[in-house]
Design brief:
With 459 residues, the protein is mainly β. 4% of the residues lie in helices and 30% in strands. The chain has a single domain, classed as TolB, C-terminal domain (Neuraminidase). It is globular, with a radius of gyration of 21 Å.
């Protein structure tokens, strides 16, 4: 499978913007009952034909390629994760809370948010929260999707389904549980998912550990042999979006050796792709084998073409972008050069600089952008925390041209400027978490620091 090296050179300009409408958006976002219900829409242009979307003078703080511009579609939504756009143009966002965000006080109202622009100015003027609230025991989540007239969302250890309303934008009926009992422990408790046209739902169950060590993230601790964690974690599981009451078990595993597939999507050809976050702490756990500088550049992040029964290497292997191959992990006898069993694992379709944290993935199938974007992948990089002593990187949205199931050209920075002046996880102004394409071809980008959503168009 062809692999494409991703350049680490970034084009970054820092901009700051104060949006005059932000306070109004926050007031609208409190509860479902406080939102204005629009007229029912029968197609993707309903409610938006009267006005041509205008873009902010500074693109909402983003740096974009020539010909593109952006508006801040919504702001202050909470920790916005993944998002999806319905055929009528309504944007649905899942937000999250809990230990991942320092157990801060959650926003009021439900963790799911429906957004609609009824005036056509590129800004949501109807913002409706729904679903369980924190007071009702809700925690929100990352995953969200659409299938057969229903909205699917991750809520804690479950994926639930809501029937979309014939009028209004927020579901009014109770949620149905599609699958429950998804693992919540360890390093990666989120459950992003993708649904194909046949109604198969593919769920990421990220690893509970960094590298399946006997003592997680500990100096010179060997790896479990075999890594029994792979029985229930570190892979993608398959369920049916059309059946309620399913229970998680090891039997539904679809693919394995994927440490954390936060970005997960169905390509235009109907095949499954995911990103993979590479492991951490090569030098801190194995200082005799790796320098701090090597650990900052290893391992590469990955874009995977996921097939049933596929084995992608974790925790036994990691991908070395300089060597362009999977190599044996030090927990399993590797020394930075040995390949061993890794020669038989599936290599990525593309790879990216280390520790950029690819959190969101979507394929472009719209008609608004130039033809070169057709079928390509947009990847939201949350940004690194562990590239020291080198500068932290990521905090951007990249575009990867695709041909079939592989990258056809090097990645390019599509949107930058999210972090602001300081690319550090604790001080970044915004961090990209999700990407989605609307029915008109606009690209939506979600941020999980302050809950901002941008709408990017070509004009």
């Amino acid at each position: 499978m062809a692999m494409t090296l991703i350049s680490t050179e970034l084009v970054c300009r820092t901009r700051t913007v104060t949006m005059l409408f932000a306070a109004a958006a926050v007031m609208l976002a409190c509860t479902k009952g406080e939102s204005r219900a629009p007229a029912a829409a029968s197609d993707s242009t309903a409610g938006t034909a009267a006005a041509k979307p205008a873009c902010a003078a500074d693109n909402g703080g983003l740096t974009l390629p020539a010909g593109f511009c952006a508006t801040v579609f919504a702001d202050s939504l909470g920790h916005a994760r993944h998002l999806v756009v319905a055929p009528n143009g309504v944007v649905y966002v899942n937000t999250w809370s809990g230990t991942y965000y320092g157990n801060g006080t959650p926003h009021a109202g439900g963790f799911l948010v429906a957004l609609q622009d009824t005036s056509g100015d590129g800004r949501a003027d109807v913002i409706t929260r729904f679903g369980p609230t924190a007071q009702q025991g809700g925690h929100g989540g990352t995953g969200i999707g659409l299938h057969a007239g229903s909205l699917y969302a991750e809520e804690s250890d479950r994926i639930v389904r809501y029937a979309l309303p014939s009028s209004g934008i927020a579901p009014t009926g109770a949620a149905q549980v599609i699958v429950s009992g998804l693992p919540l422990t360890g390093d990666h408790p989120m459950h992003p998912f993708a649904i194909d046209s046949a109604g198969d739902i593919f769920v990421d169950l990220g690893s509970a550990s960094n590298s399946c060590q006997e003592k997680n993230r500990t100096l010179r601790s060997p790896g479990h042999q075999p890594c029994t964690e792979l029985e229930t974690r570190g892979g993608i599981w398959k369920f049916s979006a059309n059946r309620t009451g399913q229970k998680f078990s090891a039997a539904q595993r679809y693919a394995t050796g994927i440490r954390n597939a936060d970005g997960i999507a169905i390509s235009p050809s109907g095949t499954l792709f995911s990103t993979m976050h590479g492991r951490d702490q090569l030098s801190s756990n194995w200082p005799r084998l790796y320098t701090a500088e090597q650990s900052a550049e290893l391992p590469a992040e990955e874009l995977l073409h996921v097939v049933q029964g596929g084995e992608y290497g974790w925790p036994y292997c990691y991908f070395d972008g300089a060597k362009k191959q999977l190599v044996l992990a030090p927990e399993y006898g590797g020394d930075g050069t040995k390949q061993g069993m890794c020669a038989s694992k599936r290599a990525p379709a593309a790879y990216f600089p280390a520790h950029w944290a690819p959190l969101g993935l979507t394929f472009y199938s719209g008609k608004m952008f130039p033809a070169r974007y057709q079928g390509g992948a947009f990847v939201a990089f949350h940004g690194s925390w562990n590239r020291a002593p080198l500068p932290q990187q990521g905090y951007l949205v990249a575009f990867v041209p695709m041909r079939g199931d592989s990258a056809s050209a090097p990645q390019e920075v599509f949107a930058d400027g999210f972090a602001g002046a300081n690319k550090q996880p604790g001080s970044a102004a915004h961090r990209p978490a999700g990407v989605a394409v609307g029915p008109d071809g606009a690209l939506y980008i979600a941020d999980d620091v302050h809950g901002r959503v941008w709408r990017v168009i070509y004009h």
